[in-house]
Design goal:
The chain is an alpha/beta fold and 247 residues long. The chain has 2 domains: 155 residues, Alpha/beta knot, CATH 3.40.1280.10; 81 residues, tRNA(m1g37)methyltransferase, domain 2 (Trp Operon Repressor, Chain A), CATH 1.10.1270. Helix content is 33%, strand content 17%. The protein is built from 8 helices and 9 strands. The strands form 3 sheets. A 5-stranded parallel β-sheet has the order 2-1-6-5-7. Strands 3-4 form a two-stranded antiparallel sheet. A two-stranded antiparallel sheet has the order 8-9. β1, α1 and β2 form a beta-alpha-beta unit. It is elongated. The chain starts with a strand and ends in an 11-residue tail after the last helix. Bound molecules: adenine. The site of adenine has 11 residues, from β5.
Length: 247
């Protein structure tokens, strides 16, 4: 999968070269190309913005510079996404949908924004990462690349993917590792039992409980089995997951 990023601050993307996304790039599972919009300024001072027509605070990115940067990308079937608080809010369903695309062009705005004419000319979709305003589209673009890349074949190991499909739409169950006792707190006994079926039932119950207690609104988008519904009833009555799924 290819990501072309149109940005005034390519150096901000350095953190993406680390960890899982960095490895995915090394393995050529994904490609991240950073295009510095400033390189396309025809101005001798490499200016890319100007004051807004009609007055007002701040500067606006000029349409011709952004357009020339866009035209330099060899794009046949690419989808152009503009990261902006005005866009539809990104969620996991949208992330999964975007991962089916072969080529995404991400346009990062700065200052007061980008001249509307070039947005109208090249953008297919506007995406926000949440109802708050950041100083630019770079962090949102990184959020999008990171979340979408997780769905690209080979980026995550198979086991993580299986676990994710198991808990689809629910929050995660809690995880524990060595030591067995930490500050007098013991790892739940069931995880030491070696009984995989019971462990899976316990984890499903904990995921249901986490979701019910922390983000109950997510439950309406989850396909619940009859067993899940029974467990949820017990969770509501405060029954512990050590007991709820096993009775
Ligand atoms: N640019 C500034 N704030 C943003 C946000 N919340 N989402 C996407 N792009 C942005």
């Amino acid at each position: 999968m290819k990501f072309d990023v149109l940005t005034l601050f390519p150096e901000m993307f350095e953190p993406l070269k680390k960890s899982i996304i960095g490895k995915a790039e090394e393995k050529e599972l994904i490609q991240i190309e950073l295009i510095n919009i400033r390189d396309f300024s025809k101005n001798k001072h490499k200016k890319v913005d100007d004051t807004p027509y009609g007055g007002g605070a701040g500067m606006v990115m000029q349409p011709d510079v952004v357009y020339d940067a866009y035209k330099a990308i060899k794009a046949q079937n690419a989808k152009v996404i503009y990261l902006t608080p005005q866009g539809k809010t990104l969620n996991q369903e949208k992330v999964e949908k975007l991962s089916k695309e072969e080529h995404l062009i991400l346009l990062c705005g700065h200052y007061e924004g980008i001249d509307q004419r070039v947005i109208d000319e090249i953008v297919d979709e506007e995406i926000s990462i949440g109802d708050y305003v950041l100083t630019g589209g770079e962090i949102p673009a990184m959020v999008l690349i990171d979340s979408v890349s997780r769905y690209v074949e080979g980026v995550l190991n198979e086991e993580s993917k299986n676990e994710e499909s198991f808990s689809q739409g629910l929050l995660e169950y809690p995880q524990y590792t060595r030591p067995e006792v930490f500050n007098d707190k013991k790892v739940p006994e069931i995880l030491l039992s070696g009984h995989h079926e019971n462990i899976n039932k316990w984890r499903r119950c904990e995921a249901l409980k986490n979701t019910y207690l922390k983000r109950p609104e997510l439950l309406k988008n989850v396909e619940l089995s009859e067993q899940d519904k029974k467990i949820l009833e017990k969770i509501k009555k405060d029954v512990k997951c050590e007991e709820a799924p096993l009775t």
